[in-house]
Design a protein that fits this description.
Blueprint: E1 2-4, E2 6-11, E3 16-24, H1 38-47, E4 67-68, E5 71-75, E6 81-83, E7 89-90, E8 94-96
Parallel strand pairs: 1-8
Antiparallel strand pairs: 2-3, 3-5, 4-7, 5-6
This protein binds zinc ion.
Zinc ion binds near residues 11, 14, 18, 78 and 80.
Length: about 100
């Protein structure tokens, strides 16, 4: 999928439509790889001891063929960056100049 780099969008700071530059946010590493999150603790507890490990027994299937893109729109007038929506799933994304 191709999208234009320059788009005319609404800027809440300027309170009008201005030119925006599209940028793709790079994916950072997981914040806490050691994982002490609630879900991680729960799955650890389930796997312990005998018996069924519940949800953790299931084999997790491979990666999905598409990823959700994380786009940022930067206002060319005030320089504020906006995130609009949750993005969309697409295999390939090209930002056209
Ligand atoms: Zn603005």
């Amino acid at each position: 999928m191709k999208i234009p780099e320059k788009q005319r969008r609404y800027c809440p700071k300027c309170d009008k439509h201005t030119d925006h530059k599209v940028r793709r946010e790079s994916q950072g590493p997981r914040l806490n790889p050691s994982a002490h999150s609630k879900g991680e603790r729960k799955s650890k507890r389930r796997k312990k001891g005998y018996g069924n490990s519940g949800k953790s027994s299931k084999q997790v299937s491979g990666e999905k063929p598409t990823r959700r893109v994380d786009l940022r729109y930067k206002c060319q007038e005030c320089g504020k960056e906006q995130t609009i929506g949750r993005g969309f799933r697409v295999k390939r994304l090209e930002i056209e100049r």
